[in-house]
Design a protein that fits this description.
Immunoglobulin-like; disordered N terminus; 62 strands; 2 helices; single chain; 6 domains; eight-stranded antiparallel beta sheet
Length: 835
């Protein structure tokens, strides 16, 4: 055996050093078979025997690599060298997945280091989980005169043995009205369910959107009951027309947005008088999980002919920032019109509720020429004074190289003579020019002096639209602890953005929100106005001076928003949670928030510009030293009801449940007790107190456009925490890329979700910074739902070094999030690049 000086402390006899072979034990277990076991030889260098004991532990990144449950270590004879340890698994249920634990062989009565042995376990089983062809069904919008007669269909199967099931239906709105039926009401998998609208229920239904669900109850399936949401929208027999009822836009990526179009509301020849006088509120919904790429103004319109009507016409325009992020091809949005109760008019609505109509808006997006470059920004870069920033740029184009120019703009409080220093690459007049190989990446690190002056500013990247990336800035907290936050590379936010803030204090912990804001315009200075709202959407009064932020051309300002310090710019927000809305007349602005905790943690909070009626959360972790907070912001002009469906990971045992601090969680579904007003926000948190780790993902749905993020926290000790933020992602997309770094003690972990009810094949391509292919041990995996792993684990993918991971799926959708673990006890989230 080869001698390793890592096994003993210099100055003692080599006989005081233990050795173990092998140093990595791999166990494979198929549920229902005999528990696996393996032998571990423990000896001592030299001729005399040493006493020892053993201890099992878990890795710090427990959410990405589950510790092995029911691990048994026995020795015969015990515990003196030489010994043979028998490592085995107790014959108890262990859910399918990949597990890792650390076995320490610890010498007794000698000064020597323990020997560390990695124990990996792979558990497989013929799954018996229920699967369905969709997680929700929706009846297309219809009028009261023409309810749907054809049933909706849903396929239900189980992977493995057939499962007997029964159906339980529920109406959420209106309560107690059975407006849909499901047949058959019982049976066995596989089969097809028919969901039929009950037209006789219309006598008890208002105009509007209605929600129900049914549970598929199968006692033999671990994920039973499986809940399927049902939606239906009832439109009125309208007494006005939309002129035109359909709009069509064409857009080429990189070009200015097309000119706005108009829609008029015209009364019919014999209008119902009360409807004629109604005003309507406009809102936008998109299809296929697109972000909101459409604007309509004004927010209130009315029918022409009404004596009090001042706005019978809507101007409909494209959001130039959002349409640039859309995939090429056809897109559809719906401009919805809703009104208050039409008093006295019950001709087509016995409940006398609302009147509604909608305009269909079609958009065709064409690709940009390959040479087209765009401007993207990094809203915060910090170097010196205990701060360091790493910038990672990724070329998602695997055919063409990407030349770029990165300009560093100093902040308004940074001395103009101070220049950031890069450890690789040289700045020429604050500018870096380079080329990213096809499929490759470039990484730049600032020098990061702990004692030198602080340079703060922002970065402006001019590059082909195939380039994405992030900046990770690091604060040195103590000699043994760093904290990190990520800044996404993105186009400027436009003239307005929303930033959630948290300046509350609880027993033993307080929060401070700071931020950076930039003016990316090169031809005008501006004053940005800040407006604040509490969680109920009620305005918070702010002093006129501090709430107006002057920014020069290409200017940058960074400051503490609130939190109790005398230097807080908006101290009136101390003790509160809510949203800040930043706007200005014409300049293009962008920003970033940071939430600092008194427990030595901070995380980045991205700005919000648009919303969607459905959002995904790629990772939720609760228990096992993890806790997750969820922040939901109403980005719409109407009140937002919210439903969150939590889905357990393939790594989470069926016996472990999720718990929230907030009331409203029934089983795996959370429903808000009150609606979120416009500009309001909802702040949720898991309990985080269980010793068992629950992890998975979540689907957030609403009747309004919402956005937000999740913050999950790791609490390894009483001294300090580490946090990472997971931005919401809109549904859709079957490819994403993730930069990874598994060098110098860093470890990249990730969560991945395939929401398809049937199993999908995930293919991974790994490339080094030059774009050359890295061949892992495996490059495919099968996935239904959620999984999490470190890229240093043996399964499903193992890859060393640094570079770019490129994931695609045979399913309809794939999304995820990355986490970069620092060797100095911290981590930060790494956003994926959807392409």
């Amino acid at each position: 055996m080869q001698f390793s000086t890592a096994n003993y402390i210099t100055g003692r006899s080599p006989g005081d050093a233990l050795f173990a072979t092998p140093t990595q034990v791999q166990l494979k277990y198929t549920l229902g078979s005999a528990p696996p076991s393996a032998a571990l030889q423990v000896g001592a260098f030299g001729s005399h025997s040493l006493s020892f004991t053993t201890q099992t532990g878990t890795f710090a990144r427990a959410f990405a690599s589950m510790p092995i449950p029911n691990l048994s270590v026995q020795a015969a004879p015990c515990c003196n060298t030489p010994s043979t340890l028998n490592i085995s698994l107790f014959p108890a249920y262990v859910p399918p997945g990949n597990y890792s634990s650390e076995l320490s062989v610890i010498p007794i009565n000698v000064i020597a280091q323990p020997v560390l042995v990695e124990v990996d376990l792979t558990v497989t089983a013929p799954p018996t989980w229920l699967t369905t062809s969709a997680t929700s069904v929706t009846f297309p919008g219809f009028t009261r005169d023409n309810p749907p007669s054809a049933p909706l269909q849903l396929k239900i199967t189980s992977l493995g043995a057939a499962q007997n099931f029964t159906i339980q239906t529920h109406s959420v709105t209106p309560a107690g009205v059975n407006w849909f039926t499901v047949s058959p009401v019982s049976g066995a998998t596989p089969t097809t369910l028919n969901i039929t609208f009950n037209a006789s229920a219309l006598s008890k239904m208002a105009r509007g959107t209605f929600v129900g669900y049914f549970d598929i109850v199968a006692p033999g399936a671990p994920d039973s009951p499986l809940r399927i949401m049902v939606f239906a929208t009832v439109f009125p027999n309208t007494d006005f027309t939309l002129d035109p009822p359909t709009l069509t836009f064409a857009y080429t990526l990189g070009d200015p947005a097309a000119a706005p179009q108009t829609v008029g509301l015209d009364g019919v020849s014999s209008p119902i008088a009360n409807t004629q006088n109604l005003s309507f509120t406009t809102s936008v919904a998109t299809a296929n999980g697109d972000p909101i790429w459409l604007h309509a103004a004004p927010a209130q319109v009315c029918v022409a002919g009404n004596s009090t009507c001042s706005s019978p016409t809507m101007n409909v325009s494209l959001d130039s920032t959002v349409v640039n992020s859309l995939a090429t091809g056809a897109h559809v949005a719906y401009l919805n019109l809703t009104s208050p109760a039409n008093t006295g008019d019950t001709t087509d609505d016995p409940t006398n509720s609302t009147t509604a109509a909608y305009v269909t808006v079609n958009l065709n997006v064409s690709p940009a020429p390959p040479s087209t470059s765009i401007t993207q920004v990094l809203s915060q870069i910090a170097d010196g004074g205990g701060w360091q920033t790493k910038i990672v740029l990724v070329n998602t184009d695997t055919v063409n190289a990407a030349p770029f120019t990165l300009r560093f703009w100093p902040g308004q409080d940074t001395p103009p003579t101070l220049v950031p220093v890069l450890t690789t690459g040289a700045l020429n007049d604050f500018t870096l020019s380079d080329t990213i190989p096809a499929g490759g990446s470039k990484t730049y690190l600032t020098q990061g002096s702990t004692s030198g002056p602080l340079w703060q500013g922002w970065g402006e990247l001019y590059a082909p639209r195939s380039v994405g990336g992030t900046a990770v800035f690091r604060q040195s907290v103590t000699a043994d602890q760093d904290e990190e936050g990520a800044v996404p590379l993105k186009p400027p936010d436009g003239t307005r953005f929303v930033l959630p803030f948290d300046c509350t204090s609880t027993s033993g912990e307080s929060y401070v929100t700071s931020m950076a804001i930039i003016n990316s315009s090169g031809d005008q200075s501006t004053n940005v106005t800040a407006s604040a709202y509490d969680t109920n959407g009620v305005p918070i009064s702010l002093p006129s001076g501090p709430s107006s932020i002057p920014l020069t051309q290409k200017g940058h300002a960074a400051f503490a928003v609130c939190g109790g310090s005398g230097s807080d710019r908006l101290g009136a927000l101390t003790g509160k949670q809510g949203t800040l809305v930043f706007s200005n007349p014409s300049a293009s602005i962008a920003g970033l928030g940071l939430r600092f905790s008194s427990r030595n943690a901070f995380t980045s909070i991205g700005t919000l510009t648009t919303g969607n009626m459905e959002q995904r959360i790629a990772q939720v972790a609760d228990g096992g030293l993890w806790k997750t907070g969820i922040v939901i912001v109403n980005m719409d002009s109407v009140q937002a009801g919210v439903t969150i469906r939590f889905y357990r990971s393939t790594l989470t045992s069926p016996g472990i449940s999720l718990s929230l601090e907030n009331p409203g969680l029934v089983g795996s579904v959370y429903t808000s007790s009150t609606n979120i007003p416009p500009n309001g926000s909802l702040w949720l948190a898991t309990q985080g107190t269980s010793n068992n780790l629950w992890e998975g993902w979540a689907d957030v749905t609403s009747n309004a456009n919402i956005n937000g993020f999740a913050i999950f926290r790791h609490r390894p000790s009483d001294a300090g925490d580490s946090e990472g933020a997971v931005p919401f992602t809109v549904p859709g997309g079957n490819r994403f890329l993730l930069p990874f770094d598994n060098t110098n003690g860093f470890v990249t972990s990730m969560a991945m979700v395939s929401p398809d009810s049937s199993q999908a094949t995930i293919t991974a391509a790994f490339r080094d910074p030059t774009g050359a292919t890295i061949t892992p041990g495996y490059n495919t995996m099968s996935l239904t739902g959620h999984t999490a792993f470190a890229l240093t684990d043996s399964l499903p993918f193992y890859v060393g070094g640094s570079g770019v991971a490129d994931f695609t799926t045979t399913g309809t959708e794939l999304f995820g999030i990355g986490l970069l673990f620092n060797p100095k006890n911290s981590f930060t989230s790494v956003p994926i690049l959807k392409r």
